[in-house]
Amino acid sequence: MNYHSNADLGGQDVRGAIVMEPEGELFHAPWEPQVMALVVAMGPTGLSNIDMNRAARETIPNYRDLSYYEIWLTALEKLVLQQGVLGDTPPPPKQVLRAELVAAAISKGSAFSRTPTGPARYALGQRVRTIAVQPSHHTRLPAYARGKVGIVERVHGAHVFPDTNARGLGENPQWLYTVAFDEKELWGEQHLQQRSTISVDAFEPYLEPA
Amino acid sequence: MNYHSNADLGGQDVRGAIVMEPEGELFHAPWEPQVMALVVAMGPTGLSNIDMNRAARETIPNYRDLSYYEIWLTALEKLVLQQGVLGDTPPPPKQVLRAELVAAAISKGSAFSRTPTGPARYALGQRVRTIAVQPSHHTRLPAYARGKVGIVERVHGAHVFPDTNARGLGENPQWLYTVAFDEKELWGEQHLQQRSTISVDAFEPYLEPA
Amino acid sequence: MSEHEHDSQPHSHEHAQRALSPMELRVRALEALLTEKGYIDPAALDVVIDAYQTKIGPRNGARVVARAWCDAEFRRWLLADATAAIAFLGLTGRQGEHMVAVENTPQVHNLVVCTLCSCYPWAVLGLPPTWYKSAPYRARAVKDPRGVLREFGVELPESTQIRIWDSTAEVRYLVLPQRPAGSEDLSEEQLANLVTRDSMIGTGLPGTAA
Amino acid sequence: MSEHEHDSQPHSHEHAQRALSPMELRVRALEALLTEKGYIDPAALDVVIDAYQTKIGPRNGARVVARAWCDAEFRRWLLADATAAIAFLGLTGRQGEHMVAVENTPQVHNLVVCTLCSCYPWAVLGLPPTWYKSAPYRARAVKDPRGVLREFGVELPESTQIRIWDSTAEVRYLVLPQRPAGSEDLSEEQLANLVTRDSMIGTGLPGTAA
């Protein structure tokens, strides 16, 4: 299986201005709020989970040509087809987000922390190396942070593991860490110095002792 | 300094019935609610902290003869004297709990977690031994759990350390763990089997590797 | 401070219209002193008392338990991050800043105690009952939990493991009791009515679905 | 599903009273399908849109920041356990289940990005601005933060360390900006008005005390 994410942009050579936007300017087309609300409303149905959604989005071939709400819409259309909504036996929704449930559902959210079943392998301050392998499925370790040595800065507890959750293989909770890298480790000694430190939130399977 | 706590009761041979109490029965004398409220109201003044309060309570010589609100009252009287409230320059209150601030102050509480400054020494599932020494100051490792081997069951993050906070020596945050012991480890092989496991919440300085 | 002698009278639970007792005088003297010195707003005391008499009590915890019984996602959140899940229900606060929820199952029964003083999850259960603060409970809960439970009229199967949580730091424990058999048709509100204070400490079981 | 062809028209930001655009038709078709199949309550969509247009936005985060500026204890709580501290202000929710607050100081400036998609703390900042989800920001924030900040009109001293948080999991980051000089006399509400959305992402600074 040849999985490729078109969304892994960190550090890439992307030109184009960053266009400022005033605080109240939320949408730029009348269909955009509908797409946002559809995605929110589909959450409780359990038709997909957040990691399946991200996988569906990042594998859109023309990802880079689309606006973000176009990406959301395209991915939702794709999932609706993939999950057999058009078939004879569409999967029943786990829950339908009725109008009167919206406020409570939004303010509750959906926690991703899980009771850990085993010890954290790494501790605050420890040096770790991220794995270099790019798996052929959805994952959350950015390309720019692969095979790099960093320091564990925070230990967040065990969280749902995207790599399995995105493939319907279960939540498989894993310890989650914030791992911080010096800019030189990521971009090389020749890189224009910025005095910066960059961290990613990395699940334990993404890490090895260094 | 010869510090002795009269409050460390776990596992002691205390006779007397446990007297049931219906849910709504909160007080048993008209002065009890006043004492409760005085203790709550004194919190924001910063005259003492929670660990100083506990130290003042557990060192009352006739602790075991007093009801709990008598203990609270006696300790508050003691602290008021010790902190020089009756002197010429009583320490100014950090904040006075005005009536209109009560609801917000109660619902806010006062968090004891602190940003950790170093790594946790122990991990979930690890065997640890509690220290055997009884320090000559306020501490929170019960006598029955001293010098015992247990398993780290939870890692709670760094919290204010009572041993220093009670003596005005600073918050000195330490990692906090739930450490669970088999009943035989605590009470011996001869103990009537209860099929029980007992845990304490232990700060890192109370623990050694086992 | 001549009012500070200890009340040597036997505890009286009746306080009709009569002269103030020595304890009442002692409390009034302390309150007057702290007011005069500017530490206390006397009006705040009434607000504090009212809060714990009418707003903050075990019905709050019962809401948490009933929600966990009705909503599997909330239950999972509560068990993984009780502080956040309980805060979502608006039940933050004093003596509930760091919450852990522990779940009873057919295999494991949880029991909460504070052997060193009277730590108790005020934010969800209100003020602790007298027995919780008493020497017999604190001494025996850790060593003879089955005997203690028997005093409360709770007889557990011999095969049930008992898990005792001694609240020795600032973490506060809430027991999530097993949902009563035959309660499938009850509303969340009806379920909350079955949740007793003692069932959330572990010294009792919830009521049965009538 | 014939409406599912991609909209090949250039992006139009004007939508006057006219025939429905291809994108609008496509979204309507999907909504109709999901409604017909019983996944969606169309009335819920309006409630979701209204929530993010009128209730859940950066003014919520500004409340958190202003509170932290005014209340040292709240600030400490926010930095040690942001999820709980923010929940205390009632701001729990979707895309804010696991919060971390990071503090700007004269030495360190924090910047938040999601290089892999568009992770953003909805519960406190609402919907992300378009630039936050755009390729140029996501690509360059990690590698050329000073260049990116310059585009936002922020020029930091050379000696300032830049700390970039790539939100690659379900932890969401809120920047706590430095309190503006000369703001000592402002009320909490006035302070909140100085807190811009961008200052809580790290791409801006708060307004100055006039």
Quick take:
Chain A has helices at 32-42, 50-58, 68-82, 102-108, 162-165, 183-187; strands at 113-114, 127-130, 149-159, 174-182, 196-203, 207-209.
Describe this protein with a few key phrases.
heterotetramer, A: 210 residues, alpha+beta, 6-stranded antiparallel sheet, 24% helix, C: 210 residues, mainly alpha, 4 strands, globular, disordered N terminus
Q: What would your notes on this structure say?
A:
- The complex is a heterotetramer, with 2 copies of chain A (210 residues) and 2 copies of chain C (210 residues).
- Chain A has 210 residues and is an alpha+beta fold.
- Chain A has 6 helices and 6 strands.
- In chain A, helix 1 packs across helix 3 and helix 2 crosses helix 3.
- The N terminus of chain C is likely disordered.
- Chain C has 11 helices and 4 strands.
- Chain C has 210 residues and is mostly helical.
- The chains are: A alpha+beta (210), C mainly alpha (210).
- Chains in contact: A-B, A-C, A-D, B-C, B-D, C-D.
- Chains A and D meet through helix 1, helix 2, helix 3, helix 4 and strand 3 of A and helix 1, helix 2, helix 7, helix 8 and helix 9 of D.
- Strand 5 of chain A pairs parallel with strand 3 of chain D, so a sheet runs across the interface.
Low-confidence stretches of chain C: 1-13
Give the largest interface pair and sizes.
Answer: A-D, 98 and 88 residues
In N-to-C order, the SSE pattern of chain A is HHHHEEEHEHEE
Largest sheet of chain C: 2 strands, parallel
Distance between the termini of chain C: 56 Å
Rounded mean pLDDT of chain C is: 92
Oligomer: heterotetramer
**Low-confidence blocks of residues of chain A:** none
Count all strands of chain A and give the number.
6
Question: Which structural class fits the helix and strand makeup of chain C?
Answer: mainly alpha
- Number of H- or I-type helical stretches of chain C: 11
The main pleated sheet of chain A reads as: 6 strands, antiparallel
Tell me the series of helices and strands of chain C, N- to C-terminal: HHHHHEEHHHHEEHH
Helix tally of chain A equals: 6
Overall mean pLDDT of chain A stands at 96
Silhouette of chain C: globular
Instruction: Report helical residue fraction of chain A.
Output: 10-25%
- The termini of chain A sit apart by 30 Å
